[in-house]
Design goal:
Layout: H1 5-10, E1 14-16, E2 24-27, E3 31-35, H2 36-49, E4 58-62, H3 72-88, E5 91-93, H4 100-107, E6 114-117, E7 131-134, H5 137-144, E8 149-152, E9 155-162, H6 171-182, E10 190-195, H7 204-217, E11 221-223, H8 228-236, E12 256-261, E13 268-270, E14 278-280, E15 291-294, H9 302-312, E16 322-325, H10 330-338, H11 341-348, E17 351-352, E18 372-375, E19 391-394, H12 397-406, E20 435-436, E21 468-475, H13 482-485, H14 498-501, H15 513-522, E22 526-531, H16 543-550, E23 553-558, H17 563-571, E24 575-579, H18 582-587, E25 593-596, H19 599-605, E26 609-614, H20 618-622, E27 632-637, H21 642-650, H22 653-658
Helix pairs in contact: 2-3, 2-5, 6-7, 9-11, 9-12, 16-17, 17-21
Bound molecules: alpha-methylisocitric acid (MIC) and iron/sulfur cluster.
Alpha-methylisocitric acid binds next to helix 2.
Length: 662
Amino acid sequence: MGKNLTRKILEPHLVDGAWKPGEEIGVRIDQTLTQDATGTMAYLQFEALGVPRVKTELSVSYIDHNTLQIGFENADDHRYLASVARKYGIFLSRAGNGICHQVHLERFGRPGRTLLGSDSHTPTCGGLGMIAIGAGGLDVAMAMGGAPFYLSCPAVTAIRLSGRLRSWVSAKDVALAVLARFGTKGNVGRVFEYVGEGVKSLSVPERATIANMGAECGVTTTIFPSDEATAAFLRSQGREADWTELGADEDAVYEAEFRLELSSIEPLAALPHSPGNVRPLREAAGTRVEQVCVGSCTNSSYRDLALVAKLLEGKTVHPDVGLVVTPGSRQVLRNIDRDGYLEMLIAAGARLVEPSCGFCIGNGQSPASGSVSLRTSNRNFEGRSGTADARVFLVSPEAAAAAALSGRIVDPRDAGLKHPEIAAPERLEIDDGMILRPEATPDPASVEIVRGPNIGEPLVNAPFPERIAGVVAIKLGDKITTDHIMPAGSRMKYRSNIRAYAEYVFENVDRDFPARAAELRDAGSHVVVAAGQSYGQGSSREHAAICPSYLGVRLVLAKSFERIHAANLANFGILPLSFLRDEDYEALAAGDGIEIQDCRSQIRSGGAIRVFVRAAGRAAAEGAKAGRAELRSFEASCGLLPRQREILLAGGALPYARTGGR
Ligand code: MIC
Ligand code: SF4
């Protein structure tokens, strides 16, 4: 029986466990990446591990998320990151050089390697034939220290492509078609592996767009083969030596298969407020648009921007539309400039933002109240743009350009435009001047780490308690994203200051939560969060676990959890428990008292865990005097892997590592 590509790459990287989908495996990590918004905390944790130099083949620290520098906080973070990079042997991609995933694809990604990144869109590099996985910052810090990355051995789904995309349909529509099929929940523990004849017609940047949005399905990663198109891309980057041919065996075995005929795909859009809310773009035609944003790690390549420029050539954006263009990297910016596309964009009235995440994470360019914004990015969660009532649609660059001209949503096939053919340049202008290399620091040991007043300490918890005695401080519905839990945008400047950032937990859901939780914590009670399906969707930001943990949260009861967030909860001493029956979720109310006895042995045993509930109102009145008989109870399960349970019991990954855990 032949092997799929995922297995062919992961198996030789195994340092623990064997290839058996669903079982825990430990994988050697060749490369890591961090970005500034998760990186400061990752490096504070790396420092706490006491390792003198990174042990990976390559580690890169990117500054791309927080580049507005409103106030001293971001600048202090950048300075801290630069000093850490010099001391510990890490490449530093400076602010303005571009979005981590785009730059990593261009300059560092290599077929056959493993990459762990503290950002959920790390799988973008799967477009190059590597296993690229997103994780919390602490897991990345541990990997930099030489530890394996532990995960559940994935089940692999083949996505078999046939045919070719038609004009006006692009890679973004493929990503949306896959989301339409698989949705944003229920795909935990899977890898999407693209196979079939249709793959050949897609360039690496197009594959990267598709791999990028696999993150929205919640899969462990997405991977494409490394073939002629990969060789051509690496050649254009002056990196032909990094190429190796890689693909699945002819008779490879997959756990599932999905066939997709590329010519059957039409222009699509993800409607507000979920990337899984996919509909044919034509259904939304006519909707008035006030903003169009082109960029983000999904669609900011040379081809994406050149195509938009060509469609706008000689025209001016609609008078009611603000058009924002953010190149994915300085390389993209310089090359669209070299080839005349930048001038076309500027002449058409585009507002240019430096290569960075920018609008995608609500860091600038928030839309007007109640308005519609069309974006080429990957997430349209409510409020993420920075405007609570804005309606964000996710579309292809083709659809974005058509709307920028007409002021309305229009299927680009109906917009009366001529389809431009954009050839990928054989050679790109390469300039790594904004990447600082480790060897440029002659005496790393003597480098002093620079900390500004905004840079706090990592969180280190006590071991997990024997008994949970707490109160449900908030009850939430399905698909609570990390953007709901821990808002980014203008609040991101507190990423390296847990105490300050914790004041914004659930800011857009329940403003009083932090004060209420802190009060319970200070009164000696544990804080409990209850939620529906797919809790912790979206980003890898571990602050969505750290800050609640700081506020006293020890237990999250939900119908299901997303992979990265569940790992982050364990890493910061919070027990994720899944309801076994919907009625137990229904019956639970905010204010209910929660009790779990013999927690540690129950968690370790791996079996169901009994949760006792004292209904709200009575909890305070009856207090500790009330006997067990007056409590109702239900069973819940803990889906953590065996090693994650040990981490949780130690109080989190840092205390675990300090007490000798691997
Ligand atoms: C995102 O797209 O939500 C982010 C911002 O890139 C996050 C990381 C973060 O919150 O810093 C992600 O995707 O992991
Ligand atoms: Fe940056 Fe947006 Fe990509 Fe996250 S999704 S890495 S914020 S561009």
